Amino acid sequence: MPHPLLQALRTARVVPVVRTRETRHAASAVQWLRDAGLRIFEITMTIPDAPSLIRELAADPAILVGAGTVPDRATAETLLAAGARFIVAPWVDASLAAPCRSADAVLMLGTLTPTEVRAALAAGADAVKVFPAASAGGPAHIRALHSVLPDVAFCPTGGVEPGNVAAYLAAGAAFVGMGGALVDEKRIAAGDRAAIEAAAHQVMAVP
Question: Residue 69 to residues 36, 40, 56, 76, 149: CA-CA distances in angstroms?
């Protein structure tokens, strides 16, 4: 049976992947995107002191926060304890399944090929991240995977932009992960809130 949180991810369609060099920029990105109407966020472990940021965000019942670029089981356990509701790794790591099951969290493992997709599912993935999606063929690659694995919840990331979200969804993606325009650190550092909110409104308007 699919994890109940998958429906929230499908409904959102776009999950901002927050990856910044400075924690304050990550916090600003989440605040601006939240104010624009987005409610689900992936906080990557490349952000300094990411667990503390996840703990702070998870205290807000109006948003759903998860952790990305999770390297191992110990880190996953720390993040789940901080309040992460989904765990994302850019590779297949079966050790992440047990802590996610214990915390009733969604597990998303990274793949590129049909063989890797099958391995991710066998390792306990609830959804399958396809990374890097754009360089692997973009929507055409997702369409090919979806044609032979139609029941898999695919989440392409890497090169997903506001202008191609609709194409990825039409190709069979359940939802997409997007950094880029939504979390442009140069614009965030410059205080260009309008540009970030405009990108958020653009992706939310995708039919």
Answer: 25, 16, 19, 10, 24
CATH fold label, 5-204: TIM Barrel (3.20.20)
Check 22, 42, 56, 161 and give the catalytic one.
Answer: 42
The model's pLDDT over 66-87, given as tens digits with 9 standing for 90+, comes to 999 999 999 999 999 999 999 9
Q: Nearest Cα to 96, choosing from 129, 124, 127?
A: 124
The runs of H, that is alpha helices, within 97-192 are 97-103, 114-122, 139-148, 165-171, 185-189
What is residue 154's predicted lDDT score, i.e. its pLDDT? 98
* CA proximity to 126, closest of 156, 100, 99, 95: 100
Backbone φ, ψ for residue 49 (5° rounding): 55, 45
- Distance (Å, rounded) from C-alpha 73 to C-alpha 86? 13
- Contact of 179 with 161, CB cutoff 8 Å: no
Annotation says 42 is catalytic? yes
Of 76, 86, 109, 71, whose CA–CA distance to 5 is shortest? 86
186 annotated active-site: no
Angle, helices 50-58/73-82, rounded to nearest 10 degrees: 30
Q: Which of 56, 129, 186, 197 is catalytic?
A: 129
Domain spans, the chain: 5-204
